[in-house]
Specification:
CATH topology of the largest domain: Spore Coat Polysaccharide Biosynthesis Protein SpsA, Chain A
CATH superfamily of the largest domain: Spore Coat Polysaccharide Biosynthesis Protein SpsA, Chain A
Oligomer: single chain
Structural class: alpha/beta
Shape: globular
Number of strands: 9
Number of helices: 11
Length: about 300
């Protein structure tokens, strides 16, 4: 399978997908240019039809950035694939716009890749805005994990303890906010699965890589700052994010879980949506409803099939 031909030999291509994230995107770009030294690199921004002036501002302030402007929101996977096809780097970093480099992380990653050819995907450590280590799941989600998340009982904070010692080690998955991949892996297993509009795409890609016998590394010897959720928690697009996350989960379950768990998790979702609708109706009747009590959204989720758009 040939995804693309190497047009030019750069050490790294950084791909950033943007959607109405102008201010944090500018901070992210500034950090990449200021912190990345000792290697050749390019930055590709793929904009999913932002209406906040992102494209004009990027063109004015960062003329060296290669900007791809979509006329509609194609989703995270499809937009990243556009950038990958246009890339020139031997290694490709998929970077969220709500991240910042706080040191020369990409050079450290590049050097490690040079010295350890057995690894094909690498994820750095992730820290929050205060510099504290963020929990990062390094193992595959189980159906039981999925059930707890649907019920709102999953505790992400336990991931910090489960991660163990903060040393470089092989992992099953890594955080999608900064995801560095050897270019040749795309030729072996293909690009990101575009059935995921938002979420689960990195878990899917890691599973496919491991199935092909390729190793994944968690590399906390360098860290990237992640302003969690700044790129997706936009109130005006809240309904879109929720529905696409739901649809993405259903597709992921059907692709990787048994028929029993696939059906059980879908039923659990429906039961949760139904109970949530009842609670929201009660809150509307008592005048205590909040923004989370949208009856139209809860009804849509309850009735929606995974194939709707």
């Amino acid at each position: 399978m040939t995804v693309f031909k190497l047009k030019e030999s750069l050490d790294l291509t950084v791909i950033i997908v943007s959607f109405n994230t102008k201010d944090i995107l500018l901070d992210c770009l500034t950090s990449v240019y200021e912190k990345t030294e000792g290697m050749t690199f390019e930055i590709i921004v793929v904009d999913n039809d932002s209406n906040d002036g992102t494209c004009d501002t990027v063109l004015q302030q960062f003329p060296d950035v290669r900007l791809i402007q979509n006329e509609l929101n194609r989703g995270f996977s499809a937009a990243n694939n556009q950038g990958i096809r246009e890339s020139k780097g031997r290694n490709i970093a998929l970077l969220n716009p709500d991240t910042k480099l706080i040191e020369n992380s990409f050079y450290k990653v590049f050097r490690y890749f040079q010295e350890h050819s057995e690894f094909y995907i690498l994820g750095p450590g992730i820290v929050d805005s205060s510099g504290k280590q963020s929990p990062t799941r390094l193992w595959e989600d189980t159906p039981q994990d999925a059930a707890l998340k649907i019920l709102g009982l999953y505790d992400p904070s336990m991931e910090l303890q489960k991660m163990g010692a903060k040393v470089a080690k092989e992992a099953q998955v890594i955080s999608g906010c900064c995801f560095v991949i050897r270019r040749e892996l795309f030729d072996e297993i293909g690009l990101l699965d575009e059935n995921y509009f938002l979420y689960n795409e990195e878990d899917d890609f890691c599973r496919r890589a491991r199935k092909a016998g390729r190793k994944i590394l968690f590399f906390p010897e360098t860290s990237v700052q992640h302003l969690l959720g700044k790129s997706t928690h936009q109130e005006v697009h809240r309904e879109k994010v929720i529905t696409e996350a739901y649809r993405s989960n259903l597709y992921f379950y059907s692709k990787y879980y048994s028929c029993f768990w696939n059906c059980a998790l879908r039923l659990l979702y429906k039961m949760t949506f139904f109970m949530g609708l009842i609670r929201s109706m009660f809150r509307h009747l008592t005048g205590s409803a909040t923004a989370d009590d949208s009856l139209s959204l809860k009804t849509k989720l309850l009735l929606m099939s995974s194939r709707e758009r």
